[in-house]
Amino acid sequence: MSPTPPVLKIAFDPIYAHPLPEGHRFPMLKYELIPEQLLYEGIITPHNLFAPAPCADDIVLWTHDAAYVQRLHRQTLSAREQRHIGFPQSPQLTQRELVITQGTIDCCHHAFVHGVSLNVAGGTHHAFADRGEGFCLLNDFGVAANYLLKKELAHKIIIIDLDVHQGNGTASLFEQEPRVFTFSMHGAHNYPFHKEKSDLDIALNDGTEDNLYLSLLQSNLLTLLEQLKPDFAFYLSGVDILSTDKFGKLKVSMEGCRRRDELVFSQLKQHKIPCVVAMGGGYSPDIKTIVEAHCNTFRVAKDIYEL
């Protein structure tokens, strides 16, 4: 008899296990350490992890411009484009983005069955249709949301972006799409300094602490879920809201960050809305802090959904 399949499905990019170009290693390190820590604790087993294939171009092109996708494949991004992205172009990075994007799509199918599924990476919310920015080449939530709409798997989607940086690329992609509601709760005085217009933006002052942060999130999220009645949710659980973050400017504690995840998952489960999660940003000086905060998202998901 075959074993019962695990219900917590996590997209993991095996590219992270291979050497990357000089200068890319540290930013990618957390993506190796998160699953390692979860495996060590017994939160997951190897059967919970799956390695996505690269996303097909025809699916990417439902969201991104063909000329831009060609430049990614041909390694012909201009010097200016590479500066905006923050990484020098390389075939490995393009491949990585395609794998991340397919991982988020695959997570959608698992979320329909089990309520939640998580991508160890993803949340590349600064990527626009025709360009990348802020360490983001392709917008994985954007591609996955358009995939769900195109396949008629969802009809009203909410994107809950709680990274400390506004999801400017995501807001731009869906500005004229009423079936996708973009909700971004971010630092008012943080990157990107030119903000796009989400359907709902909550701009937080520097130094915002746990109580105010959680109060604003709870009241706004509950109202949105009751009014919009979405049938699918994407959740970007960036941990750059932490007080320890080098760039975040907020003062949310590790416990406050965990309670944020608990609040989001509890509300989505209560409203019976399938959810796909991507990790987003985290830039605390100590890599252990980043990994612990991200692992909390997985721990809370498992607890809330009783996986």
Automatic annotation (TrEMBL):
Record GO biological process: epigenetic regulation of gene expression
Listed Pfam families: Hist_deacetyl
InterPro entries reported for this sequence: HDAC_classIV (IPR044150), HDACs (IPR000286), His_deacetylse_dom (IPR023801), His_deacetylse_dom_sf (IPR037138), Ureohydrolase_dom_sf (IPR023696)
Keyword Hydrolase on entry: yes
The keyword rRNA processing belongs to this UniProt entry's keyword annotation: no
Domain Histone deacetylase: 28-295
This protein's UniProt keywords: Hydrolase
Similarity annotation: Belongs to the histone deacetylase family.
UniProt-recorded name of the protein: Deacetylase
Organism taxonomic ancestry: Bacteria, Pseudomonadati, Bacteroidota, Chitinophagia, Chitinophagales
